[in-house]
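Hey, resending since the last one bounced:
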Amino acid sequence: MTYAGRKPSEESTDDSEEEDTEEEPKLKYERLTNGVTEILQKDAASCMTVHDKFLALGTHFGKVYLLDIQGNVTQKFEISPVKINHISLDESGEHVGVCSEDGKVQVFGLYTREGFHENFDCPIKVVALHPQFSKSNNKQFVTGGNKLLLYERNWLNRWKTSTLHEGEGNISNVKWRANLIAWANNVGVKIYDIGTKQRITNILRDNTSLRPDMYPCSLCWKDNTTLIIGWGSSVKICAVKERDPTEMRDLPSRYVEIVSAFETEFFISGLSPLADQLVTLYYVKENSDHMEEEFRTRPRLDIIQPLPEGCEEISSDALTVRNFQENQCRDYRLEHSEGESLFYIISPKDIVVAKERDQDDHIDWLLEKKKYEEALMAAEISFKNIKRHDVQKIGMSYINHLVERRDYDAAARKCQKVLGKNMDLWENEVYRFKTIGQLKAISRYLPRGDLRLRPAIYEMILHEFLKTDYEGFATLIREWPGELYNNMAIIQAVNEHLKKDPSNRTLLTTLAELYTYDQRYDRALEIYLRLRHKDVYQLIHKHNLFSSINDKIVLLMDFDKEKAVDMLLDNEDKISMDKVVDELKDRPELLHVYLHKLFKRDHHKGQKYHERQISLYAEFDRPNLLPFLRESMHCPLEKALEICQQRHFVEETVFLLSRMGNCRRALQMIMEELADVDKAIEFAKEQDDRELWEDLISYSIDKPPFITGLLNNIGTHVDPILLIHRIKEGMEIPNLRDSLVKILQDYNLQILLREGCKKILVADSLSLLQRMHRTQKRGVRVDEENICESCHTPVLPSDTAQVFSVVIFHCRHMFHKECLPSPGTVPGMQYCNICSAKRRGPGSGILDMKK
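The structure tokens again:
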């Protein structure tokens, strides 16, 4: 059985374009075989009805066969010598209704003997059992010939007949769903409500030019209230709705609304619902001009999406059924199983089953179209649901496809995902990549975690890189853990290559890394220092190699002074300061860097080298010499002075002279050698020595620029009058007026400051006096615990009725009046004996208690 998955009109002459644009079919097809094949070789199918559990097939020779889903015959009934027109089953599948061209109607139970047999004088085209025929008491069914008859049992167990409709030609189709019966005749489609016994609609057929016996109507209930009608090339979807009680009057309680109506390209032989879509079986007329010869008269099965005023085609398949050239529109039927999405295309000599494609079918199609990546993704997502495929096998097919296309990097990348933890497959792929000369492609994706290959595999790849790509080899050594391969074997191989190219930095760096993996850190350190590699310090710290660098300190300093000094100072417990100084004694510029940083960290730790540092600073770092001299407390001043005088370092010499107490000589150097009056004044201010000011004035008195500088700066330290009196008459002094104005301004400012301070002082004094007065006016508590400071007895008598006199001073010392000495020189004034050392101190008497 074959089908074409595209509309013939869209067929392209370009094969590659067709392959790119071909869409995946929505359905898959297979012939119903086994017993069906034998039946159709001798007979022809005329109708078929589908139940979830079995199939019922009627033939042109008047036989009815019950088949299982695979097409095997389970039961056979000989109903009539002529064609079976229709078979009906109830929902339970326990009762069957059959009608034939010679007017016979039989309704019987498959598991009971009860039944109905009747012969009519006209052909009966359709029979329909009540969906609940087996369970209902009145056993209703309808037959359709030249009229529609309803049969039901009465209470006497006899069959009662009612005519539902007649007079509009033969009844060609009937479908019963719940309480609704839909039928088609030559005029149109009617719907009858068996519950209310009312006909609720009449839908006229559109294609009146077509013979109804050649192009019969197709009916299908989507659910209990939705009827789908296909007739000729017209499709209508009708919804049965409840009428508003206020609008009923004499109208039926229900009405029908056509929710979608559209025309199709071909003639409809059958239709079935598929979720919210429709599966339609088309009959294609032979005289369609736009069809090519290959597709003529082959029936088509389409999936369409109904829209309010049209439809959208989802998929279209042209089917090659047996003897399709001889079939007419009325020879095809489409039946479906509601339990699962199975669609049966019935023709006289062939029965084809269409079903929705599952994930395995989807993967089959992707593999057929060589869309391996999509197939692999689909398999991974639905690995629990696929039955015929294996994710790893699909992945291997994808890898093989990529290798065939010579996309080796993509193939190697997919190995990581597809091969997973299967080490045997990994090794096979590695050897395959070796055979095709692409070991480099797969090297980046080899397992390197808990699961790993044999060391020989990794060594094979490393040797391959070592032959052709030093940089790639170095990258692998950095990325791969050292446990993956035999380190010694790789080290030996690298050394062999270094014999040919001993200065190759890439190989040397890689060799150092290999030595590090092998814990031969001293060898690695030698190479790093030789290469001046940035990782040398990290290696020393990480593996505590300080014992190995005692004789390599100069090399480390030459490489990076700052890092080396920081490392040495941070690890003084491992490399002593004396050892470093000894190693650097022949490289004074490096020794200075080390000692300078040591001094910055701790001014006292390297005190024994401070004398040496003076000459080092003088030689290599004069800007830091003066700060060093200022901050060092262990520097020999005489030695420092000697060095500074030899090198004519004036500022440093001035500092040393002042520190040694020879301020006059220091001031003299500033004035004579620096000729900087500002520095001289600053120096005098720092020393705050009157004699030094006198020397400065004396030296400057015959130098007008110096006099200007003094006038501008000494106002707050020396009385300017002393300087002004000593200026010779007639001497021209630059900016004298401005200097005098500044002196006056400074004087006025001082006066203002003094007056402001005086006001503040007076205000504060008054405030404090008032506070003291308020404090002294407060009462003082006296009780039995207070004692006389003179006789050390309680100041209050035990008998309070007794007359007593107590004196209490502001200092809170208390005395009996008789215990106090006589008043002093000032009559009426008494002083506390304890506080009398202070002249009129706070001990003045404040209270005289008498009783």
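The radius of gyration is 60 Å.

Sorry for the duplicate.
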